[in-house]
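We now fix the convention by which a protein and its fold are recorded. Think of the row as the fold of the chain written in a discrete alphabet. Here is one such record, which you should read through line by line.
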Amino acid sequence: MYTVDNAVIMAAGTASRFAPLSYEMPKALISVKGEVLIERQIRQLREAGIKDIYIVAGYKAEMFYYLEEKLGVHIVVNPDFLTRNNNASIYAVKDILKNTYICSADNYFSENPFESVVDDCYYSAVYADGETKEWCMEYDNDGTITSVKIGGKNSWFMLGHTFWSEDFSKRFTEILESEYHLPETADKLWESIYIEHIDELKMKIRKYSSDVVFEFDTLDELREFDTSYVNDTRSMILKSIAAELKCSEGDIRKVLSYKDDTNEAAGFTFECGNKAYKYPYKEKELRRI
């Protein structure tokens, strides 16, 4: 049994798929059903008795600073959020990792999944009925994860928080430090590094119902969960587009980000009526497709 020492909430990414709301504020700071995503997660951690909470910020980091005074958390800035994947956020807090929850700031938990004492290292999972492109896990009779692959069918996949014991944290940190400066490491999720060393980084699967753990990758997915966003997106960009097209915000649908030739986020597309549009964010110009 492990007494939880602290929690890390990763909130450094740009969340480009969540365009255009993420152009205006970090995804973690949007309100869902009346509560700011990251504030809800902090509240749930505190209710479970976890007082020492670290927020790893990067994109628009200054927008998170109010949380220090309001909720008494620690803000750690990941300076490499634009050039590295989330392994850089783990690296930024490597010196405080003990018996630690590692959380994603954009998760919404309908029920509090946290506890002050945990029986083993685990990664939370939700079941996919049918085909999925998520990271699917295989595990043995003891529940220990034996392999992870992208894509599967009728599988449990990685979604939500994870718990690391102090021994797990120590070994993962040693591996991360030894590989961090290798060119091929920059683009890796920390989960990829874990998978490459899965035989020595033992972790169990913890299963949750699909109505407990949520993640919203696009505005349309958020609208399904919180219908208040159908006609009020809270986005000045979409409000200005609605005004230009003389339509309601609810008429703007199928909002999807796209990348340019260098694989960088470049803008978003959407449909309104029976017409399709492109909004190249860098030029901030509405174009008919």
